[in-house]
Here is the input.
Amino acid sequence: MTESVRRLAREARRDMRQGPAAIARRQRARLAEMVAYARASSPYYRELYRGLPDKVDDPSLLPVTDKKTLMGHFDDWVTDRQVTRERVEAFVADPDLVGARFQDRYLVATTSGTSGLRGLFVLDERNLAVPTALSSRTRGLLGFRDAVRALARGGRTAVVAAPSGHFYTVASAERFRRDHPRLARIMRSFPIDQPLPTLVDELNRYNPANIAGFLSTLAQLAEEQEAGRLRLRPSVIMPGGETLTADVRDRLAGAFHAKVRAAYAATECNFLSVGCAHGWYHVNSDWVVVEPVDADHRAVPAGQPSHTVLISNLANRVQPFLRYDLGDSVLLRPDPCPCGSTLPAIRVAGRAADVLSFPADGGGHVSISPMLVGTVLDRAPGIDGFQILQTTPTTLRVRLQPTNGADADRVWQAVRDEISQLLAEHEADHVTLERAEEMPQRSSGGKFRWIIPLTTP
Here is the structure.
């Protein structure tokens, strides 16, 4: 643990001991510092914040930002003039550089995200240090028997994640392996693009103490565990990426006889919250501002679901996310959480686990994770946005938004090839792909969904 991490950890423990008022003071101070830094170092924010007071520690005074706008101003948005979109694109085009330090300083991650819009994210060392500094807030999740079970499996963690690429789960795990080669064996990534029987066999051989991954994939693994093909005894299951409902939580806990601790986070802020035993996500509000808002970006009272949620990451200076529209509907708990944490608690309605399910040729069904669809489309060039609708049990309708200047026919061909290959690998090559003439669309409630299964009303 570096001195920087130790210092941040001491601050985090001290603020927690002193209570919510100390956390709130720390948040305001860090917000004012981040706003000042962004104005001084980012041409985009300098222009956006023209006319604001010299010191801003109230997030409601700031204009709202979003992924599409920031990605469109990438070179002016970043605060390091040596970081350009062209250089980042060249870096992520090389699979051998996953987890390597970009310009000897930064971690780079890509994602399609729940919006279907590809993101290029540059994370600085402080942003990467904060999760380690806050790790004490996840301690105490294990009882004595859980700890014994974890030690019996060498503390190994299996990360069931996107295929090899610069996705955050993969890149951060690879960074850990690069920085700590002697500990590399205790953390291993298992790509979700391999056939399910192969994934099951590899996990059985690894025998992890902890399993983290996309919720929809973990739900599939629970089926394998119940059927006896997967034979694991983990201490903790850590689902992410999609909304964890009570019934899925109970199924995971029952299938693996393990504690389930979900996390609500995003590549834009990977330390956003930590889950508790009562199904709430506790926001690390000393390092992130979370604002549940209505469609006009006005604050929504506690106890009411929001239209969307705005976040301000108070750690990452190279690529500041300030009042950033994350696109999820959340509900802020109006009363203290029974778990005892004094951090704000939220529940999330967004990021539904929209698994695509198709009838199999030999009977039964074939299921494909929405995250897997998103990761394969991330490889296809020329896409600004996409949306996939299942219109019949064996038909997918694909809506595309090509980037400006891209050849729409070539983009469609690339997308069709990627999805066709994915379907063939999962023995669903009987599924028909249709090219939609219309662009990706939001639902009547304003929420954008990039995968819409047949079962969706």
